[in-house]
Amino acid sequence: MFLSRMPRAAFASPALGAVVIRRAFIAAAKATPRTWTSPRDVRALRTTPSLMRPSGIDTPVTAEHTPPSSITTAATDTPPPVSKAPPSTTPLNALHLSQGAKMVPFAGYSMPLMYPPQTHILEHNWTREHASIFDVSHMVQHMFSGPGALAFLESLTPADLVALGPFHSTLSVFLVHPTGGIIDDTIITMRASQQQFYVVTNAGCREKDLLYFKEALRKWKDSSALKEDGEVVHEVLKDWGLIALQGPEAKDVLAEYLAHVLPPQVEVDLDKVIFGTSFEASIPASEKVGERVTVHIARGGYTGEDGFEISIPPSPAITESQIPHPKSPAPTAAASSTVPAHNPTTYITNMLLRIGGQDKIRMAGLAARDSLRLEAGMCLYGHDLNEDITPVEASLGWVVHKRRRADGLFPGGSVIQAQLAKNGTPPEKKRIGLDLGTGGAPAREGMKIVKIGEKGEKEVVGHVTSGGPAISLKMKNIAMGYVKTGCDKVGTVLGVDVRGKVREARVVKMPFVPTKYWKGVEGKGKVDAVIKDPSGEA
After folding, report:
1. Which of 162, 405, 473, 483 has the highest Cβ tally under 10 A?
2. Are 468 and 478 in contact (CB under 8 A)?
3. What's the half-sphere exposure (Cβ side, CA atoms, 13 Å) at 216?
């Protein structure tokens, strides 16, 4: 569908979807656990760790902070002990260190915040203007297989997987019963048939998600569903790499790379791989002739820019054809790493850097990824989404497909149906975007959103969940948050209590910066993408 004149030896069936990467922020080791729905104390924000300031002012960071699991029901009077285990590392750890990355603990992993002397702002702008590679290997990659895989996943989400075509993806959410709250957000991709789905979930939700799936599979096996729909096999793709190639020059870099490593008779038309679709390719895993891996290449990302995400197995496989690959090009200043290509993810990343060259592509860290996703109006789990928020409240009602709205056969179905119905029960709160203008301190998570009355009285109507200066908008202060229904209309003037001073904030449409997803020539691709703009409203 996406490729022309491709021998099966070089390309397998297209697979894997665009992976919308979501993360949990770092918490201080001694921080008291917080509930995700309560606004933080404003003073505490000054020392609370964040992605831009991982350790606050002077508090060392030794542990991640993840939202509570809905599966664990046992109560406890004392907070669980903080793990002293060192953070895990991704397959690109040696490359990060060789490039001088500033590493921070994040979602249980040691991850690059940025790559000095590049700054956060430079990496952000570079991604907007050229192309960057982000390491997102900390994300959890799953495979659900078997005759019951489709029905099983539909029993946990409001997605219409029947409507998915092969190698198409959909953004969805795993839900809590009976409230319809969000356990985690996810990308689900149908592979070659309805009996295999690739699923990516958040690193910060790893343990609770695994418990959620384990319990759901137990119930599946004990119910009539097993007999009616068939067996389901769940596999976590351990140690797989995942890199995100993002930016306006991402397509050119990937096209040049594929032309370099694939046989000359293989043609790849990336213009036909539109947002929300994917394919699979066999590419060199190392300098060793014939050592190759089959990678999943999906068009999408978490920055609002055009781009691709590449899922990479941890070890190579020797192909029967033993197709030799071209000699590696000479390294450029952008890829001056002396780290040997000891694993496929490192080798492929270095090859992309070398072939693209320092004028097109560089590495970028978590700080730039976070400011880019905020400008794109994308949610961060544990901040903008949690188990007390439904998709409708999150302004993501479109993830509930029309067929599923009618049947309601998913966790919290009756609640979500009522919230969507014209004469139903409207949600009590809605996620909104806020424009606070330029200058002054930015709105930060937990700050109160207020409605100012005719006599100057202030009524608290919500709180901020994400906020900061928009680098792409000349540092205009923007934010996302939740307000009472009725205060969510675009154009409504509200206020945000920033350090004791109420700043005017106007409700605006999201995304704050227009997204640039590739949807085909003049926006009309030959393949219909299933994923909608992740910042869009219902």
Report:
1. 483
2. yes
3. 27
Domains, the chain: 3-20+240-356 (no CATH), 429-525 (2.40.30.110)
| CA–CA gap between residue 249 and residue 272 (Å, rounded) | 17
For helices 250-261 and 344-356, give the axis angle rounded to 10 degrees. Answer: 110
Mention every residue, 6+ apart, whose C-beta is less than 8 A from residue 262.
Answer: 10, 268, 281, 283
Query: Rounded CA gap, 390 and 179, in Å?
Result: 8
pLDDT per position as a tens digit, 353-381: 999 999 999 999 999 999 999 999 999 99
Q: Dump the DSSP string for 105-136.
A: EETTEEEEEE-TTS-HHHHHHHHHHSEEEEE-
CB atoms within 10 A of CB 348: 25
Q: What is the pTM of this model?
A: 0.81
Q: Residue 169 and residue 165: Cα distance in Å, rounded?
A: 8
d(C-alpha 119, C-alpha 338), whole Å: 22
Mean pLDDT along residues 441-455: 96
CB 142 within 8 Å of CB 124: no
Counting every residue written for the chain, the total comes to 538
SS (H, E, C) 441-453: CCCCCCCEEEEEC
Six-digit token string for 436 = 């606070």
Pull the structure tokens for residue 37: 């729905």
Name the DSSP letter for residue 40: P
pLDDT score at 198? 99
Q: What is the pLDDT of residue 416?
A: 98
